[in-house]
């Protein structure tokens, strides 16, 4: 049983043990390259649950790049799960489930990508799908900003300047991913923006009700109703 | 003997993962309460080194929406259905059980008497079981907490009050702190602790209850492999439920079934007691749809 | 504030490892009972994936031999001494406490109200504390079990009965099976589960009790690092005891003390309540030997 | 603090993180070679507590050989702890505490070593200390018997023959280590024998009372009163 399909509301995800092809350090981040196996890369903004060796729960990660035969993730080591993932090396293999959730709606007129920190993770794959639209990226430090090399044409700011300082008055169709304060700021400036949110997730496929966010006064499961939400009220 | 595999309540949504639910010998719903509940504020999930915490707090659509919307859709999967019932007073349990008694697609009612994530009912577990027993002819399973000095005593009491079986165990209260702030990781503070760390505790509870009561037991707590299933059966479980493992491995029921089928290991003494609805020869299954 | 580090009762013998005991802010003895006890049949130790089980069963020389032989030798180490007291009836607790009341080298009496490895006393924990309180002027710590639905309720009750502090938590009942035979690994069957798996449970108990009572709390359960010590302090512990970690790392007290001294992390809000005998300025230490 | 001394009833043990120098397969066994650090090898029959990576408790192991600058252990993979130890490789390091317990009394007239299975572990070091006395070894299978190469001059039997079948009528000063039934049989045939027993141990230094065995009608801690006992009653 190398690969199993799970129907999730009519869509299909697969789970497979994938070999690690490489793990490259970019500033404080790690670019983890896995073989693709029989998994679909899915729509940009969708995510995968990655087994974090030694930890009881898998970790949700956006697909960053989809090279032929591969799946690439951008990881920031912030705790035990991401540290375990960042220490993977060729020769290791991990179980991966996906693609999961709702990605970005690609039917947009004048796309503008906005990313902050490790939140830029889904943007390279998204940029590819949209034909390299303009992109604005913000980082905590020059060292963090090294990862902007994944989006060579993007405009980049480093704190204390904020990525929202660069937003034009009429930003068009914003597609954004980043820390919550950044998404809140983007939302205030660009109504109708597509925002990719985060929440701690145990399952990623609607089984646990752990990942809820308030949408319209009700708790919705971000893993199946998101992670990309349009203009969360 | 084929060991029935179920999911643990709250650890699988048959509607978002129907192909997973179909692999089970019975699907157990998330706990249903009389009124809709939004549950606890996020974050609701945290991890420890050997388990996880949750503080979902029984988010569910309430019995009305459950019976009208959810149940008919689950029934389409043609898997036996166990409905988990919760509440905050004996009247809540009897209200929900009464409603379910009319639903032919419900095979078993599991009484969640032990959710660590909500205020408890004032009545004792015995009174809650008795209240449910008075209003339903469905097989009743009582789900007990491991957080008790003498679980066998509770087991005897709920058996006497009319429970047809036991589900053992629910989560136990736990707390983790955020590494940076040393504030509780969960929005609610404490949560229910599940996963591998719970396994020895669950085994001790099943072991103690199997010696104390005659009714069948569904064992659960940290099961991740066929080996763990066989351990629970060896101490007296008649069926085994998979919980936290489903989050990392949705295909665990099929994997573990294959491991069990391939296992040449002696299973200990398989329990003589059979859990409900896995014995079609003695208890004809009612499979008429509720739609 | 310097966070006092103790050993957990039953996890260190000051006579076989005096250099380890000397590193502690107080040495806690293994539980002493009125009569000598041989304890439970071996095997008494088993391991699980995230902890261990023990079924020692309070092996100890009894209060006579303890007072005459053991206590004077421990007193030579010049470390504050906490004596853990156990029994099978309120009269056992009062008998041992009365004997210890005359011993100037005993700084604190810890009442083990929660050993999962012996038959329990018929009286409630409140009655046991009251019985001890009646016969001793020593500071009394009540050691509670995590295996209770509402530990804060027990905490309030023992505080009202005269406890000067709480020790939280004891082990919780667990079972593991031998992989080959699927028979219980321990001679006694069930045992007390300790180590890393217990940590979230211990944190939840300390958190709940710190909100419920005013007396100081010694926290314990799965501590292996300064980080875990600071977590317990953040939820309300005034001191921390090391148990299972001492088996793999006898030098853990010194290592963790060094980690704490080097730690720049905020410790949360260090508890205002001070545990006994670490405040020489307010409570003059009685250091006269019992010999 | 690379190395710490623990006083155990007047004797000294140390704890140190030791590098793995090698791990060699012999039949079903693994010969694990560690650097010695500042640890003393101790008396033959004494043991060390070895950290088993990933497991909560360390494991007691008899010293097998004491090459210059090294400590060598013979391991049989029977469960999670020994499997973890058998998978160590050069580059790994583990904490080791010891030497612990009472070894063999070397003041003997006509020593005869008797070992069964992995119970031969302490015999190479013991043989060295006693000037290669005669030795009788028993094994479950030819594959297990490969490890007899550690005691080249020993007489070796394989089941169904038992090592006790080789015991002479007047066996002299028997020093034995092996499975419990073997030790019981040796005891019946050779009164006054020094027998090295086993019990599950959590600490190895008298802290836990986990390792008790009945000696003269009372439970004694094998780790500090043994593991070598003379003629257990
Ligand atoms: C849909 C989705 C896609 C994601 N994509 C990426 C990605 O491409 N690259 C990447 O590096 N990270 C991504 N994340 C975040 C990543 O999943 C978390 O950083 C990771 O789970 C943290 O685990 P940990 O054990 O390392 O840290 P933990 O110890 O679990 O947490 C460290 C800190 O992060 C917070 N945290 C934990 N989990 C989350 C979470 N899921 N969202 C927000 N905060 C969290 C904790 O509260 C804590 O403050 C994504 C999250 C989601 C939900
Ligand atoms: C003083 C002493 C010296 C030892 N020297 C060696 C040695 O040099 N080489 C070696 O391979 N082994 C030796 N052992 C045995 C070794 O410690 C155990 O095999 C090991 O601890 C088992 O751990 P595990 O996790 O692999 O297996 P477990 O899963 O713990 O146990 C597997 C099986 O072995 C039994 N068992 C567990 N621990 C022990 C024990 N300590 N003694 C007897 N049976 C046990 C269990 O009951 C079970 O049946 C020694 C034991 C002692 C007490
Ligand atoms: C996220 C989550 C939600 C749960 N929700 C419920 C619930 O609604 N009702 C219930 O009876 N038990 C609930 N439980 C407890 C499980 O059914 C099960 O008893 C427990 O998790 C132990 O099994 P495990 O260790 O295999 O997860 C929940 C557990 C988890 C982890
Ligand atoms: C081997 C062993 C023996 C113990 N003996 C006692 C005892 O005699 N009295 C007591 O109050 N607690 C006893 N305990 C419980 C510990 O004091 C402590 O409460 C528990 O182990 C949790 O801490 P830990 O996880 O750090 O070990 C014992 C624990 C172990 C592991
Ligand atoms: S992560 Fe489990 S429901 Fe969303
Ligand atoms: S192993 Fe702990 S006392 Fe012997």
Keywords:
heterotetramer, A: 233 residues, mainly beta, Elongation Factor Tu (Ef-tu), domain 3, seven-stranded antiparallel beta sheet, 5 helices, B: 291 residues, alpha/beta, TIM Barrel, four-stranded antiparallel beta sheet, 9 helices, 12 strands, globular, disordered C terminus, binds flavin-adenine dinucleotide, binds flavin mononucleotide, binds FE2/S2 (inorganic) cluster
How does this model look, in words?
The complex is a heterotetramer, with 2 copies of chain A (233 residues) and 2 copies of chain B (291 residues). Chain A is mostly beta strands. Helix content of chain A is 14%, strand content 36%. Chain A has helices spanning 80-86, 123-130, 142-145, 180-189, 222-225; strands at 3-8, 11-26, 29-35, 47-50, 59-62, 70-75, 93-100, 111-116, 135-139, 155-158, 173-177, 194-196, 212-215, 218-221, 228-230. The longest helix of chain A is centred in the last third of the chain and has 10 residues, at 180-189. Chain B has a single domain, classed as TIM Barrel (Alpha-Beta Barrel). Chain B has 9 helices and 12 strands. In chain B, helix 3 (90-101) runs parallel beside helix 4 and helix 4 (125-133) packs parallel to helix 5 (151-160). The two termini of chain B are 33 Å apart. Chains B and C meet through strand 9, helix 6 and helix 7 of B and strand 9, helix 6 and helix 7 of C.
């Amino acid at each position: 049983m190398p690969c199993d399909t799970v129907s999730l509301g009519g869509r299909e995800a697969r789970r497979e043990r994938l070999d690690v092809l490489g793990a490259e350090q970019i500033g404080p981040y790690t670019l983890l390259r896995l073989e693709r196996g029989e998994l679909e890369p899915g729509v940009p903004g969708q995510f995968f649950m990655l087994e974090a060796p030694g930890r009881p729960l898998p970790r949700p990660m956006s697909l960053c790049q989809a090279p032929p035969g591969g799946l690439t993730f951008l990881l920031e080591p912030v705790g035990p799960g991401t540290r375990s993932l960042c220490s993977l090396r060729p020769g290791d293999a991990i179980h991966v489930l996906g693609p999961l959730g709702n990605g970005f709606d690609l039917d947009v007129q004048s796309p503008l990508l906005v990313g902050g920190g490790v939140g830029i993770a889904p943007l390279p794959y998204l940029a590819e799908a949209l034909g390299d639209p303009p992109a604005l990226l913000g980082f905590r430090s020059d060292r963090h900003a090294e990862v902007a090399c994944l989006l060579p044409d993007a405009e980049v700011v480093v704190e204390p300047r904020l990525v929202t300082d660069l937003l034009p008055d009429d930003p068009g169709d914003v597609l954004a991913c980043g820390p919550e304060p950044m998404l809140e700021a983007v939302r205030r400036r660009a109504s109708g923006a597509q925002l990719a949110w985060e929440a701690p997730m145990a399952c990623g496929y609607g089984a646990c009700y752990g990942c809820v966010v308030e949408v319209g006064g009700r708790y919705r499961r971000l893993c199946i109703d998101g992670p990309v939400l349009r203009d969360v009220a | 003997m084929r060991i029935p595999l179920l999911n643990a309540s709250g650890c699988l949504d048959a509607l978002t993962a129907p192909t997973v639910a179909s692999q089970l010998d019975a699907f157990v719903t998330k706990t249903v309460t009389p009124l809709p509940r939004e549950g606890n504020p996020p974050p609701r999930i945290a991890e420890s080194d050997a388990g996880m915490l949750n503080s979902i707090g029984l988010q569910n659509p309430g019995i009305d929406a459950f019976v009208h919307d959810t149940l008919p859709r689950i029934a389409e999967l043609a898997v036996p259905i166990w409905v988990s019932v919760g509440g905050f007073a004996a009247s809540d349990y009897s209200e929900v059980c009464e409603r379910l008694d009319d639903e032919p697609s419900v095979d078993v009612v599991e009484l969640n008497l032990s959710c660590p994530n909500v205020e408890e009912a004032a009545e004792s577990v015995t009174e809650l079981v008795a209240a449910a027993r008075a209003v339903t002819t469905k097989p009743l399973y009582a789900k007990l907490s491991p957080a008790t000095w003498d679980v066998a005593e509770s087991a005897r009491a709920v058996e006497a009050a009319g429970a047809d079986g036991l589900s053992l165990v629910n989560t136990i209260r736990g707390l983790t702190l955020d590494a940076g702030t040393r504030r509780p990781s969960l929005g609610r503070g404490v949560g229910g602790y599940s996963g591998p760390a719970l396994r020895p505790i669950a085994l001790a509870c099943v072991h103690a209850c199997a010696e104390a009561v005659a009714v069948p037991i569904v064992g659960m707590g940290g099961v991740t492999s066929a080996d763990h299933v066989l351990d629970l059966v060896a101490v007296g479980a008649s069926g085994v439920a998979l919980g936290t493992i489903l989050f990392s491995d949705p295909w665990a029921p099929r994997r573990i079934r294959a491991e069990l089928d391939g296992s040449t290991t002696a299973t200990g003494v398989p329990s003589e007691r059979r859990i409900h609805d896995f014995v079609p020869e003695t208890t004809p299954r009612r499979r008429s749809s509720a739609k």
